[in-house]
Amino acid sequence: MSQTTVWIFADQLSHRWAEWLRERGLGQANAQVLFVESARQLRARPWHRHKLIFVLSAMRHFAEAMRAQGWRVDYRRAPTFLEGLKAHLAEHRPHRVLVMRPSTWQGAQFVESRLKQALPDLALEVMPNRMFLAKPQDLGTARSPLLETFYRNMRRRTGYLMDGGQPAGGKWNYDDQNRLPPRKEWRRGATLDIPPIPAFPPNAITRQVIAEVAQIETAWGALEGFALPVTREDALRFFEDFVANRLPNFGPYEDAMVSGQPTLFHAVVSPLINVGLLERDEMCQAAERAWREGHAPLNSVEGFIRQLIGWREFIYAIYWREMPRLREMNTLNAQRPLPAFYWNAQTDMACLRESVRSVWERGYTHHIQRLMVLSNFAMLAGVLPQAINEWFLSAYVDAYDWVVTPNVIGMGVFADGGIVGTKPYAASANYINKMSTYCQHCRYRPDQRLGEDACPFNALYWDFIDRHAERLGANPRTSMPVKALRQMPAAEVAALRAQAQRFLDSL
């Protein structure tokens, strides 16, 4: 009987592999499963240590689970992916190799180009990626496709939160109910009544991975404190806890930022879905069931489902439509190096300091910290888009090129000129003060524009508006701050620009 090797990559750890292989006439009698750890990939950039621990431990646990189900598994640790495959081919001599198309452009290039060049006689079959719904053609032909249009089409396509042909509750989108700032008592330092996210102490496999990651000299971030689920069973328990304890309040406070609370009511399931331990559909179904059974309000459930079948799928489609040029875009001609505090948190700005510390400790912050603090600063300061993009790719436990690059290059720093979003998400200290408690613990004053105590975000914001006034003034969504700038006295504008430059020179 001819034998097929099924090469499963580290972000494809889906429990549905047996089903997908049966569709191709493959089973335990005529297929063997291959996993490869690449030493080169582990040192390809300064990966966060929690990212390395999570991916390696999840992949090793997944391999063990497949063995327990009766699959023949070849788990290899090699200098490179190619050398691992070559060693497997030499030992097992399969009739063909089957892979699922990688989710990243670089991964697809490796599978569809480099492998064929290095192994021209290899019988390679590439099956479609089964972990996403959307394709570039789902975006239509507009240069800047509208998320809302895409999202409504995805709702109709999947049937989630639909009553016949109409959206449940009579509205497609409840985002206007999901923008509450922190509660007054949180600002006064009251203890938040938020159930902590479940912690999963490392078992023997994970402890071995931690010991190995400790020896990777290029890695970054805390080694201790790792507690993410790394198995399918624990991932399900992790998500069930979110539905029971945090989903009801997720919607209203999904944009709030509170000191000492990097997750608030967020699900923190992005690392798990991005490697396949959890699935989009099972989470959407559970969230909708929670609303229909009266356990969670519609605005929270709709907001959560919109993240999964709206934004996540939208970003994936944008990525594949715009790559590889997307990674090199720099519409605003930003050239500044990434400030050192993104790596060491050594800054007097409390919002940046706390956000970077959270990344250091766990490789995670929620989306508003990523967009309105870390990316917003980089955009206002004119940081090279590729530099901030590389930092996000290195620093976050849920980071993969397909999700980071369009979010950072596009939405985060507007380097794409308006493909992902129709405006730059530029904000002064006023937004951060409104939506967070950070300013209460900062040496800078969010209500001051000029002077030693003025929050740097303010001068940077007006400097950014002035530098790009022609572009921003032509955009109906960003014309108001340009009009406000033109009404300021010339001396004040000059003072703001000088203050911004002094701060940037001090970095």
Which tags fit this structure?
Rossmann fold; DNA Cyclobutane Dipyrimidine Photolyase, subunit A, domain 3; 3 domains; two-stranded antiparallel sheet; 23 helices; Serine Threonine Protein Phosphatase 5, Tetratricopeptide repeat; 507 residues; 5-stranded parallel sheet; alpha/beta
- Quickly count the helices: 23
Q: Profile the largest sheet.
A: 5 strands, parallel
Instruction: Give the averaged pLDDT, no decimals.
Output: 96
Query: How many strands in all?
Result: 7
CATH superfamily of the largest domain: DNA Cyclobutane Dipyrimidine Photolyase, subunit A, domain 3
N-to-C CA distance:
65 Å
Classification by helices and strands: alpha/beta
Kindly provide the radius of gyration, computed on alpha-carbon positions and rounded to a whole number of angstroms.
Answer: 24 Å
**What number of structural domains do the residues give?**
3
Top CATH class of the largest domain:
Mainly Alpha
Describe the structure.
The structure is a single chain. The chain is of the alpha/beta class and 507 residues long. It has three domains: 4-127, HUPs (Rossmann fold); 136-194 and 246-322, Serine Threonine Protein Phosphatase 5, Tetratricopeptide repeat (Alpha Horseshoe), CATH 1.25.40.80; 341-505, DNA Cyclobutane Dipyrimidine Photolyase, subunit A, domain 3, CATH 1.10.579. The chain contains 23 helices and seven strands. The chain has a five-stranded parallel β-sheet with strand order 3-2-1-4-5, with helices on both faces. Strands 6-7 form a two-stranded antiparallel sheet. The termini are far apart.
